[in-house]
Amino acid sequence: MILCNLVSIAQRVGAPRIVPTRGIPYPAGDPGLNPDAERAWRRTLVERALRALSTPVEEPTVFAEDSQ
Amino acid sequence: MTVISPSAHAAAQRAVALVRDRLGGDSQATEIPLPAFDQVTPAAPLEDPAAALIALVTEGGLVPAGNPDRLGSARATKWVRHSLEGRDLVEGEFESVHGGFSTQWANAEPNRILPLDMARELEREGAIGKLHSEYFGTTGNGTTVADARRFGVEWAAELHGAHIQAAILTAT
User: What are B151-154's contacts with CB under 8 Å, separation 24+?
Assistant: First the structure.
């Protein structure tokens, strides 16, 4: 699965499982947050990644929310 | 889709021809057809991440400080692998050499490129069976499709060989 900011490109090249992130230079972070909040965001991204990896997909699929 | 040859007509004629095609309902008419990419068959889902061996990989140019392999900042023609055993991604020990964006945020906190700290936390809590002990990385910046395909094929072979069931790839 892929964690990336440029979701439309990932879809176009056929990446099956996509988790959107907040900026090109920091795919697993968000420097606008304080350190604790940023780690919590990074944990959320990894948790979404695990959920994406556990979900059957037939085509490029975006996992943007925790409730999916 | 109409593909107009740029060499056949003067620019003004080409522009008018393209407008006519578009107005005529051919919404895809173009002088520059976009490349077609491989069809990727999605892998089967993990049955249970808590029982899986999972690898972290990145095209964010992450390297040990000093870039011992001389990984390129653009148009990379190789990838690198480095052990994460007993190491944390901390400022001064790892850095990004990616030439396509400012690396100030990556260098100050390399976990922003490879989410090792939180992946390890989830491993400790049992949500991830086991994290692979090394990461693979390259620089995805002006990389040719041919090189990127080769990296992917080589990574897949390495991961299969190490009995890894899934990979989390960060892309910048």
Answer: B151/B79, B154/B79
Residue B57 domain boundaries:
49-170
Asked whether the predicted pLDDT for residue B55 surpasses 50, the reply is yes
Contacts of B48 in chain A (CB under 8 A): 54
Structurally, chain A folds into a number of domains equal to 1
Domain with A43 in it? 2-62
User: Is there a contact between B172 and A14 if contact means CB atoms under 8 Å apart?
Assistant: no
Complex ipTM value: 0.95
CA distance B79 to chain A (A): 17
* DSSP 8-state secondary structure symbol assigned to residue A59: S
In a domain, B42, yes or no: no
Strands B94-96 and B62-64, bridge-based pairing: antiparallel
Residue A67 maps to a domain: no
Q: Is residue B95 in some structural domain?
A: yes
Confidence of residue B1 (pLDDT cuts 50, 70, 90): low
Beta bridge partners of B60: B139
Which parts of chain A are beta strand (E)?
A: 2-4, 17-20, 61-62
